[in-house]
Amino acid sequence: MRITTLCFLLLPLVLQSEWIEPPTRTAKGYLVPAPDYVPVFPADHGSHRAYGIEWWYWVGHLKEKEGEREFGFQSTVFRLAGDPVEAAKPADGNFGTRQLYLAHSALSDLGEKTYLHHERVLREGWQAKVSSGDLAIKVAGIEVQMLEDGEGHQVFSRLPEEGMLKLEMHPIKPLVTFGDRGLSRKGGSPAAVSWYWTYPRLEAKGTLRYGGEEIAVQGTAWMDHEISSSQLGENLAGWDWTCVHLDDGTELKAYRLRQKDGKADPWSAVYWIDKAGRATSIYAKDFTWKEEGSWTSPDTGLSYPTSVRIEATHPTRGKLVYRIRPLIDNQEFRGNGRGNDYWEGACEAIDGNGKKIGNAYLELAGYGGSLGARLN
Amino acid sequence: MTFRHWKAKLGHYLLLVGIVAVGVGAFNGIRQASRSASANFGLFNQAVSGRSDFLIESPTQRFGPEQLSSLGRLASDPDWHLVPVIEGSVTSLDASGQPASQLRLIGLDLLALANLPSILEDPIEFAEEESTWHEWLGSAQDVWIGRGAADKLGVEEGDSVSILASGRIMEVSVRKVLEDDDSNLGDDLVLGDLPTIQALLSRPGEVNRVEVVLARTDMREDRGYLEQIRDRLSGDLPTGMRLSPTENRAADRAAMTAAFRLNLTILSLIAILVGAYLILQALDAAVVRKRTEIATLRSLGVNGRIIFFICILEAGVIGVLGSLSGIGVGYLLALGSVGMLADTVNALYFATSMEALSLTWTDCLVGLGIGIFFSLLAGWLPARDAMSTPPAQVLSKGDWSPGFDWLRNPKTGILLLLFGALALLPPPFMMEGGSKMPVGGFLAAGAWILGAALLSGQMLVLLAGWLRPFCQGPVSRLACSRLRDGSSRHRLAVAGLVVAVGMVTGMFQMVDSFRGTIREWFDVRFQAELYISERGVTGAGNINGIDPLLMDELLEDPAIEYADVMYLCHARPKVGITLLAGVDMDAWSSRIRQIWLKQPGSLTPVEGSEPALVSETFARRFEVLEGGTVELDTPNGKKLISPVGIFTDYGNEFGTAAVSIDSWKKWTGSDRPINVSLYLKEGVNTNETRDRLRLAFPGLEVRNAKELREVALGIFEQTFQATTALNAIGLCVAFAGLLLGLLSIFDESVRTWTTLRHLGFSNRQFILSAGLEGAGIALAALVCGALAGLAMGWLLIFVINVQSFGWTLLWQIPLFDFLRFGALLLLVGFVSGCASAFYWNLKNR
After folding, report:
1. Which of A82, A127, A158 lies nearest to residue B134, judging by beta carbons?
2. Which residue in A53, A94, A137 has the most chain B C-beta atoms within 10 A of its own C-beta, making it the best mutation to test that interface?
3. Residue range(s) defining the domain that contains residue A209
4. Among residues A191, A190, A195, A198, which one has the least CA distance to residue A179?
5. Which of B76, B114, B193 is facing A127, going by the closest CB pair?
6. Tens digits of per-residue pLDDT, B410-456?
7. Closest CB from A93, A120, A140 relative to B195
8. CB B215 to CB A160 under 8 A?
9. Which terminus of chain A faces fewer neighbouring Cβ atoms within 10 Å, N or C?
10. Which residue stretches of chain A are H helix?
11. Is A20 inside any structural domain?
């Protein structure tokens, strides 16, 4: 019995390679997400000020309610903590020094093949306020708040040229927690772990104001909320990440953590989420991420591998092939600062035979310089 | 023919070119210096983050945290960036703790600057790129300064600088010296993160304005797009805030000094007029000298038009050469006077730093245009004379100058005097920003001075007639009879001098009246024993203020019987800007003496409005001399004030309205006093108290009444530095003009002198007679010029100053200065007469 119990407890470790105990704090002094943490909502939808890095991320595909036009969208709010001793304290005025926020909004017009995007970097206070008690965000043009039903939430994003996207989102599946013992590992460094919570399929409905028109839209969205203090291991150059809403009602999430030598980090992973919201994962040794095509930005000169072939061995279903194809080439998000450019865009997912099997969003980060040092 | 003369009289022609150069230089120099002193706004933006496109301002030019929050919705629009700015003046201290130089603190959200579109090819790097964002911001004392400021202060990165800010001594640390090759940052600019500067100025949470920078830099010149953005911004602007294009801020400030600068420009134009007169005289002299040659040429059949063309060409060449030199002279003059002018502007209006002096193509063209125009104008009459010279007549008779015959006719002069009087009837011209331009006053000044000049010939003849009975001996009789003949050239010499005398004596009166009025005002203004303000801050327009906690601490001093605390901020009427003060209304109406234009209580306040004591400038500007209401925009909404009394105040030209301290605080949301006047208890030693307070509050300026009076008078003396320079120019011009005029007269009188010499007239007698002739011309010019000057003084004090500044000055005629100037002018006349006769004698021996 004791042996059986021990085997049961060790099984996940054996399956998911070795367990590395994270430290309580990073070398800089920020708290490190602890294992076995059971999030409490709605409080954990809010900000975790004592942790170094945090983001709230929404992407999705939208379709005109009474028409054929299709759009992709992204709304992301990043938080970077200030001095570790001070960061956890409440906001200090209109131009505080305890937290820094970044707001990224983008819209892809899949028919017109155009891409609008916008970034703001703001310190906590005047234009950046994020609640620690629930999902209530107001950072530059992005405003998020819980809906009265306590389940859904509203995301409002301002876009350039008087544009605006206002969506009400309702989870179709429950929130998924990724990783072992509640920790998603992002490299060999003990502190490179995060709490990674996702609504993999949200029903999105709302209004898009774009090109002087008010367009009723609906579609499917994905939301991530990730908290860490050392997001990437130091030897990592960046990551390639995708989420796929498969037509069969399941989802796929895959990421390749790219080492500086170009190889995939062993902690790169693929997750399948079944119709009930249960996640199954594999790590780098069980999948490949191959580049099938690339696009070079005329603005920054950076080259992004925007066509991807993922071959993964599902624990029960065997080898599966997913190919990701961009719906527009130019979905490069150019930040205001130098070296922060990345590609993030609406894609379609096809199988090995070229048949469309779902909608995807692809993120290609760190092609303009190593992110490891900045997100560490 | 012309250039043969040039070769022979190189020195003479060089002098002519020099005269044009001085005239053009004076005009251009004042123009450039004035521009440099008033257009400094926006430099930091161009240097740090590119220029902004619009400005959001509150009526008091202060935003509290709540007002800033109300802009939150506007701030989140991706099509523009809102950049809050706090600005203030502080004084750096040297090693011995004494105030060294004034610095301009600018606080910006340095992190948000990263959002702004990169306009500069090489943006200024604030710190090493790899540091984390909070390390990059540094400590709460860190500031960034330009290379110019670092060199001026003698500091490098990591060094500390002691400063006086809001009455406290503070330390700042130089985080980084910004290498700024184009010197855009100025040598007084200190940049810091917004919270740092707020703390240094002890104005937590406060900003002065919010600048708007368009996200699409490619559209910033597109008028349609700008209008669309303005509409969108205005649509969401919270009540009480005002949106304007960035240039308007500069325009506002420029409007404040517009009248002042206009005065200077007009005066510089007078300098040019006098210069033109000199050219006219000189060219006329040249024609007189060449008359024999011209007559010979004419008798040989040369067309009059060719002679005219030659003379005009000569004037044109002098104009071109003189103007080109004048452009250079103007730049040099501006270099010399720019600091002087800045001091004047600083003293009267607001602390400002100088923009690099620049010479633009427009300056060159304006200088060239003015110089050539006036040279041609001056050359026209002599040229016409030369053209119509009848050979036989000229060869037989010396004095022939029909071109100046109009000087003998008093009609034009009388008409000009009448025109001047009529020009005063229309109201002044309203300028942008609410100030007024006394167009009629300036026209009247010009017309009267010209009228007086034209009539001065009559005065010369009249005076000579009156003096004749007193003349004994041949020398004085000769001089008197020549003056009584009143040749056109004599009249021309007097007329030119009249302009210079009128200008100088008019200035005398204005300066003296100003000084006298200010002295009387200071007697009232500084009636308390001690005056306390922020240390190191000069200039009537500086309203940074004292930390209220420090003020509370100060007022606990047991030696104080009564403290007259004053609060001050900018307020926005419908047009332009004015000052809103918070004072102890009861004390101001009773125990504190004022020079009242209307005693408190003599005006009935309009029901529903706030009773206010207003300055004369305010009352005139808003036309409430007989009571009424003025609406002011305050952070607490629009407020109506109604005057109950009007006091005289020469502190600023945009007017002051004083309301009760409670209302002021409520309206402005601020509690920062600007200064306090302390009335000490009986028996308390003023100087001991002053010394004690100075020790206890090293960041505050504690002065007794006498000291302050001296400082304040010093500031006002600075104000008139520019006019002193113009007076000097006037005197020099008078001397040179008289010299040239007399030489020309003697040239014309060859026959008379030859006859007299044959009759036994000695050289000494000739020189003496010429001296008396010169003195006679000077006397006539003095009488006419002084009368014109009195009229000018009256115009300056009762029309131009009242309309430009809203000030009534006590008209003071500085008799001693007049007499001294008169004596000097007579001496100059005599000496120039003697000198020219001596020179003429040498030449014609």
Report:
1. A82
2. A94
3. 44-365
4. A195
5. B76
6. 888 899 899 999 988 888 777 655 566 778 888 888 888 888 888 88
7. A93
8. yes
9. N
10. 2-15
11. no
Tell me, yes or no, whether A201 lies in a domain.
yes
Tell me the nearest-neighbour CA distance from A174 into chain B, angstroms. 32
3-state secondary structure B616-673: HHHHHHCCCCCCCCEEEEECCEEEEEEEEEEECCCCCCCCEEEEEHHHHHHHHCCCCE
Q: Is residue A254 part of a domain?
A: yes
At a CB cut-off of 8 Å and minimum separation 6, what does B579 contact?
B568, B569, B570, B571, B652, B654, B655, B656, B657
pLDDT for residue A214 is more than 90: yes
Q: Which of A268, A324, A246, A265 is nearest to A292 (CA)?
A: A324
CB contact under 8 A, B112 and A100: no
Q: Do B77 and A158 touch (CB under 8 A)?
A: yes
Q: Please give the structure tokens belonging to residue A52.
A: 């170094």
Amino acid at B289: R
Distance of CA A218 to the CA centre of its chain: 21
DSSP-derived 3-state class of residue B84: strand
Is the pLDDT higher at B339 or at B735?
B735
Q: Quote the tokens at residue A270.
A: 């693929």
Highest mean pLDDT among A137-141, B278-282, B448-452 belongs to A137-141
- CA–CA dist B743, B488 (Å, integer): 14
Per-residue DSSP letter, A22: P
Q: Choose the closest CB to B72 out of A105, A119, A126.
A: A126
Residue B813's alpha-carbon distances to B269, B462, B786, B792, in angstroms, are 24, 26, 11, 12
Q: Is B764 exposed, middle or buried (0-12, 13-18, 19+ CB in 10 A)?
A: exposed
Nearest to B727 by CA among B795, B835, B818: B818
What part of B 49-88 touches A (C-beta under 8 Å)? 65, 68-69, 72, 75-79, 84
Residue of A nearest to B207 (CA): A94
The CATH number covering residue A127 comes to 2.40.370.10
Is residue B786 within 8 A of residue B822, CB to CB? The reply is yes
Phi, psi of A32 (to 5 degrees): -105, 135
State the pairing for strand pair B54-57/B242-245: antiparallel
* B607 CB neighbour count, 10 Å cutoff: 8
pLDDT in tens, B384-397: 776 766 666 555 54
In chain A the first and final C-alpha atoms are separated, in Å, by 43
On whether residue A10 sits in a domain, the answer given is no
Burial degree of A279 (CB within 10 A; 0-12, 13-18, 19+): middle
Query: For a pLDDT cut of 90, what percent of chain B falls above it?
Result: 7
- Residue B195 to residue A121, Cβ atoms within 8 A: no
CB < 8 Å to B84, chain A: 126
Q: What is the tens place of the pLDDT at every residue in A74-84?
A: 999 999 999 99
Residue A80 contacts B, CB cutoff 8 Å = yes
Higher pLDDT, B243 or B519: B243
- pTM of the entire structure? 0.63
CA distances from B471 to B746, B769, B772, B780 (A): 21, 12, 11, 16
Residues of A with Cβ-Cβ distance to B111 under 8 angstroms: 100, 121-123
The verdict on B114 touching A (C-beta cutoff 8 Å) is yes
The domain total for chain A is 1
Q: Does the complex come out with an ipTM higher than 0.85?
A: yes
Contact A337 B114 (CB under 8 A): yes
- Give yes or no for A159 touching B (CB within 8 A): yes
Helix (H, G, I), strand (E, B) or coil at A68: coil
Q: Which residues of A touch B112 (CB under 8 A)?
A: 121-123
C-beta of residue A228 within 8 angstroms of C-beta of residue A194: yes
List CB contacts (< 8 A) between A53 and chain B.
none
